[in-house]
Amino acid sequence: MSEIFGVKRLKTIDDWIEVVTRRHYKQGHSAYECAHRWKNVGSRFPEPIASICRKSRLQVLEGMEIKQLYAEFPVWLDTHSTPSKNDLMIFAEGPGNRKVVVAVEAKCDESFAQPVDTWIRTADKPVPRRQRKLFKGAYGPVERKIRRLKFLNAILSTDIGAESTVRYQLLHRTASAVLTARQTYAEAAVVLIQAFTESEGNFRDFQDFCKLLGFPKIIKNTVIGPYFTAASPEVPLFLIYFQDRRQGTRPHDSLFPESSTTQAA
C-alpha cells in the first residue's frame, strides 16, 4: 500500500480526519467518499481511473504507479496565504521513470465554489452587521483578488476577466497542478475531478472551463487534452471528469487496513 501524507504520515483514520477535519468527514461528504475510494490503493490507481488512462492511449499516462499521496495538499499561488488545498495530490511515475502529478478534486453535493464575478467582489472579511446599511449596492473587485486572477491567468495562459462566470475553484485547482508539475520536474499534470454526485450543474461548470481552454466537446470518463501553458510550455496538462459513485456505509477505517483499530481487533 502507498503511504499517505498530510502534514505528517497518516497511519490511522484519526490522522486522516485530523487533516480533513471532522466537520468535513461525514458520510455523503467528499472527504469521506474520497477516503473510501482510495482505500487500499496500493501502487496502482483504482481500476476505473486506470482504465480511463489506458483508453486514452497516451503513453505518459499508461502504467502509472503511485509513489506518494498527500491529503489536503497546499499549493502556494501568488502569496504565502490562501493556498489552493487539493483533496489529494498524487505523485506518480510511469515506465521510464516518467513523473506525473495528479491533482484530485472530489465532489459530492458541493459546487466548484463561487463564479469569478462573485468571488472577486466578495470581501475577505464580511461587513459587520451594524455597518451593512452604509454599504448597500454592488461591491467593486477586491484588490487582492484582482492580483490573484492576474496570476492565475498568467499560469494558465488564459484571459479571464472580472465578469467571468467560470468557477474560481477550477482555476486555482488547475493552476496548482501546473505549478506542482513544474516544481517537481514532472512530464505531465492531470486534474482529476472525482464526482460522487451526478450533478449536471457541476459537469456544465466543468464543460465551461474546458471550453475556455479550447476543448468544446467534453464527455465524462475520458482524458481531455493536452493543454499547454506558457508557465510550463513543455508539460502537457490533462483533465478528467470521473463519474464515480458513493461508497455507502463501509467501515470508516477502510483507508488504513493496518490501522490501530484493525490491529486491536
Strand and helix map with partners:
Blueprint: E1 4-5, E2 9-10, H1 13-20, H2 30-37, H3 47-56, E3 65-75, E4 84-94, E5 98-107, H4 116-119, H5 143-156, H6 168-183, E6 188-195, H7 200-212, E7 223-227, E8 237-243, H8 260-264
Protein name: DUF6946 domain-containing protein
InterPro entries: DUF6946
Domain DUF6946: 11-225
Strand order of the largest sheet: 2-1-3-4-5-6-8-7
Sketch the major β-sheet. Answer: 8 strands, mixed
The percent of residues in helical segments reads 25-40%
Number of strands: 8
Q: Given the C-alpha coordinates, what overall shape results?
A: globular
Structural class: alpha/beta
Overall pLDDT, averaged? 85
What fraction of the residues are assigned to beta strands by DSSP? 15-25%
What is the gyration radius calculated from CA atoms?
19 Å
The H/E string reads EEHHHEEEHHHEHEEH
Number of domains: 1
Separation of termini?
20 Å
Count every helix, treating DSSP H or I runs of 4 or more residues as helices.
8
Pick out the low-confidence regions: 258-265
